[in-house]
Design goal:
Layout (H helix, E strand, L loop, with lengths): L4 H6 L7 E7 L15 E5 L2 E6 L3 E5 L4 H14 L2 E4 L9 E5 L10 E5 L2 E6 L2 E8 L21 E2 L4 H16 L5 E11 L6 H11 L4 E5 L2 E5 L2 E6 L2 E12 L4 H13 L1 H18 L3 E6 L4 E4 L3 E12 L5 H8 L7 E2 L1 H12 L9 E6 L4 E5 L3 E4 L4 E10 L5 H19 L1
Parallel strand pairs: 1-5
Antiparallel strand pairs: 1-9, 2-3, 2-12, 3-8, 4-7, 6-7, 6-20, 8-9, 10-11, 11-19, 11-23, 12-13, 13-22, 14-15, 14-21, 15-18, 16-18, 17-18, 20-21, 22-23
The structure holds the ligand C=C(O[C@@H]1C=C(C(=O)O)C=C[C@H]1O)C(=O)O.
Family: Belongs to the isochorismate synthase family.
Organism: Diaminobutyricimonas aerilata
Keywords: Isomerase
Length: 418
Amino acid sequence: MSNSPVSTLTDLHLPALTARSRPCDEIDDLLPYADPRHPLVFLRRGDGIVGVGEALRLEFHGPRRISDAADAWRRVVATATIDDQVRRAGSGLIAFGSFAFADHSAESSVLVVPRMLFGRREGVCWVTEVSGGGGYASSRPRPIGSAGAVRLSAGTPSPEGFVAAVGEAVDRIRSGELSKVVLARSLTGRLPDTADRRAVLASLATAYPDTWTHAVDGLFGSSPETLVSVHNRTVTARVLAGSTARGEDAAADRARATALATSSKDLGEHGYALRSVLGALRPFSTGVAASEQPFTLKLPNLWHLASDVEGTLAGSATVLDLVAALHPTAAVAGSPREVALRTIADLERHDRGRYAGPVGWVDEEGDGDWAIALRGAQLSDDGMVTAFAGAGIVAESVPERELAETSLKFRPVLDALA
Ligand SMILES: C=C(O[C@@H]1C=C(C(=O)O)C=C[C@H]1O)C(=O)O
C-alpha cells in the first residue's frame, strides 16, 4: 500500500547472486536445520526445502504485488550464476514467497532467497549456498525445543459477528448480488519469547503429513490446497471447496463423505472454485482439465470436495505468472470475484494479511509449488499470533454450521500451539 507498484520495481537493488547446489548425505529430518525464530519451510511428506538466512529479501505491495514479484524474479534470475549439480525440484536458485490476500492490505508481500537451503526429494538430499547477497546462515542442525503452550481467543469478527455476517451474506446471495463469498474470522494469542517456532511446524507436519507445511516470514500452517505447481512444464492444481466434519466411527465417517459427495450445496460451492481455476489457467496452458466429478479428500479434521487439475504450460510464463492470474480463486474469495472481494471487505472488517494468499517457492526455471495459505497463522516478531479460518457461503448456507466449519478448520493451528 505504501509503495506505488512502479517505484517498487525500478528502485529495487538486485544483486547478482551465485547459487551452488550439491548433493549431501541423507538428511532424515529437515526441520532441525531451520532457524528457530525465522523458519523458512515448505514441506510435504518429509520432502521439500528448508531455507536459512536471507541472501535477498524483496517486498511488494498493492494490486500488482504478485506480477511485480514475477518481474523482479525474472531480473534476479537474469543476473544470477547457477551451478546446480542436483537438478531436482527445489535445487538451484530458489525464492520462498508469501503474498497478502487483498490488494490494499497493510501486510507486505515477500520473496526471500535464503543464504543456505537444505532439500530432500525422493531420497536425494542437497545443500544450496547463495553468495553475492547479504546474510549469514548456520549450516548446523539444532535440536528442536519447545514452543510453549498458547491459548488463542476470539478475534475479528467474533463468533457472533461471524454468524451475523454469514446471515447478511446469505441475504445478499439470495437477492442475486453474488453467487458465493468466502467469509473468515480470526483468533489471536501470543507465543512466549523463548518459543522454538520449529516445534509448531514439527507438530503440524506430523499431524498433517499430506498437506503443505509452510513457514515464510512468520506465516505458517499446513495447507491442503495447491494453488498451482509447475514442474517441467506440467501444471497442476488441487482445488478444494465443500467441507464436512469427520464421522465419530467408520460407518458415520463414510456416511459423511457420501453426503458431501452428493450435496448439491457443496457441489455448487465447489463448481465456482473449480471454474475459477480452469478459467485462469487456460490462457497459459494447453489441455487443462479436471476429473469429471470432484473426489472426497480425507484430512484428520475434515472431509473436503477436491478436484485435481492438470495441463501443459505453453509459452514462457513462470509459476509466479500463474499465481498472479489465479489469485484469489473462488475457493477463498467467491464469485463473481470483484463483488465477492467487496463483500469480504464490507462484512469481515478485518485485514486478512497473508491468510488465503499464495505461499510457496519459485526456482530459476520458473518452476515451483504454491499453496493457498490456509489452516495456519501469522506470527509477528513479538510473538503475536493471528490465525484465520473461513468458509464458502452460498444461498443454502446455514450460519451456525458455517461457524462450526471454521472451528474445525482452526484445529490444526490450535493443536499445534496447544
Ligand atoms: C477458507 C478456508 O478453506 C477453503 C474453503 C473451503 C470450504 O468452504 O469448504 C474448503 C477449502 C478451502 O478452499 C479456510 O480453511 O480458511
